[in-house]
Amino acid sequence: MAGGMDGQEAMGAPPSADAIEAHARATIARLPAQFRGHLGDVVLVVEEEADAETLDALGIDHPLDLTGLYHGRPVGEKSAFDSGALPDRIHLYRQAMLAEWCETGVRLDDLVAHVTIHEIGHHFGLSDDDMHALEAAVAD
């Protein structure tokens, strides 16, 4: 893992947004080339938590209930006529991930990989089964 992380950070300060991003980028780097090649314009953003507007739009009551979100149009729905749109974005929410990490005991790198791949799956319009297969393909 990047920065000497083994996926289960030592006790002390909680992992930073930079650590979460490093795990997510390491996951992306392990994706098959046919997927990585279509992610160049997708922006990866790590935020503390989803804002109230995002939560309201999704009907979610508490920010710790949302670990990630894809904003954009899936690759198969894009058109040559799309212009002026914001770039596609994958948002990872640090506080929600840390809460789930503490609650479940799942390795942090595995949790970040799961959420990152799930959001990438939305970018490609993948089914849940396809997302699980992609996750298995990048597993350590």
Automatic annotation (TrEMBL):
CDD domains: MMP_ACEL2062 (cd12952). It holds the Pfam family Zincin_1. This is Neutral zinc metallopeptidase.
